[in-house]
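name: query_chain
kind: protein
chains: 1
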Amino acid sequence: MVKHMSENDDARLGTLCVWGGETEKNFWLGAVEVPVVNSVTFGYKDVDKWLAVAKGLQAGHIYSRNTNPTVAVFEEKMRRLEKAEAATSFSTGMAAISNTFFALLSAGDRVVSITDTYGGVSKIFLEFFPRFGIKVTLCKTEDYDAIEREVEKGCKLLYLESPTNPTLKIVDIRRLANFAHKFGSIVAVDNTFATPINQRPIELGADLVIHSATKFLSGHSDAMGGVVCGKKELVDKIFHFREINGASLNPVAAYMLIRGIKTLHLRVSRQNDNAMQIAKFLESHPMVEKVFYPGLPSHKYHEVARRQMSGFGGILSFQLKGGFEAVRLFLPRLRYAHLAANLGSVETITGPPATTSHVECSPEEREALGIPESLIRYSVGIEDVKDLIADLEQALDYLKTAI
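structure:
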C-alpha cells in the first residue's frame, strides 16, 4: 500500500497518467516499462531486514497477497491522479467498495446514501448490511435537505456516487461533504464514471475516492480491478482488512491497468467530445423520449456538473419511445457497439440496466429507483463520432417503421 508523497505530484494530469508512480523506480535491467512481478513471495537472506520489512519499518515486500511491486506502481499512479495521501487496490471494483464498507463499519453503525447507487451496492445496503447489524438510510439523490437531516441524526459513513449509474444524476459533493464533516461522518465517493480526468472528489472535500478500475482506468475491457484513494488513516484500515480477507489485485492485471492509464487523459478527452455530440443528436431525434447527460443544458443537474467537473464524461443514457420492445429492436441494429455489461472502453458498449448496471434488481425494484425499462446506457468509445451518430440514426429510423 502506497502512502508517501512524491516529487512530481504537481505535474499535470496528462503527465501523471504516463509518469505517475514510475520515475523513481529501479526497473529490472534498465527496462523503461513496469515489470510484471508474478512472484508470490519475496526472500531475504538477512533476518533482521526481513523482520523490518514485515513490520513496515523498511520498504519492501513479503507476500503478494499483502503488497507487490507491480501493484504498488498502479496504486501510486492512482494516488497521484486523485491527489490523495494513500491508495490501496483490489481484485475488482465491488471488492474495493465492499472492503471499504466492512473495514470501516461495525454493528450499530449507520450509513446514509442515495437511491441512485450501482445495483451491486444497493444489494449490499439492502441484503447484506441487515445481517451484520449495519443500518442504512437511502435518500432521494436530489433531496439534499433530506440527506443532511439524516446525516445530522448520526452517520458513520456518507456514501455518494456522481455521476450516478445509469441515469447520470450529479451530486453536489462539496456541499454534502462539508455538511457531513460537521457531524464527524466519513465521506466516500464512487468516481468511476467521471475518472480523475473529469472530477477529483478529494478536492471537493471527500475523504475517500473509489474506482472500478475495470472501466475507464483500464479502457480496454481486458483487466479487472478496483482502487480506493484518500486519507492515510482510513486507507490503512481498508488495506489491513483487504490484506487479511484476500481480495488482492493480481500483478498481471495491475500491469494492464498501468498501461491503460497511460492513455486515460487522451481517451477521456475524446470520449467527452464524442458523448456531447451524441447527446445533442439524440435529444433532437423523435424516437428518443429523454436523454440523460450532464453536459446538456437541459440536464437537471447541469449547473452542479459545471461547478465540480472539468469534463462531462463518456457515459450517457437515453429513453426510447416504445418501451422495452423498442430496446429489443433497437440494440441489435447497432453496428459500432458491443451489447455487453461493461463501460469505459475504447469501443462503444451499450445495453439496458436490466442486463447491465441493475441486473441484480427486479423490474419493480428498477421502477422504484426511477429506472425505466426503456432506458439504454451508452458508453461512448473513441471511434469517429460521425460513424457513431450515423449508426444510432439508422437504428432509430428503423424504429419508426418497426413500432
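note: The first helix runs from residue 13 to 19.
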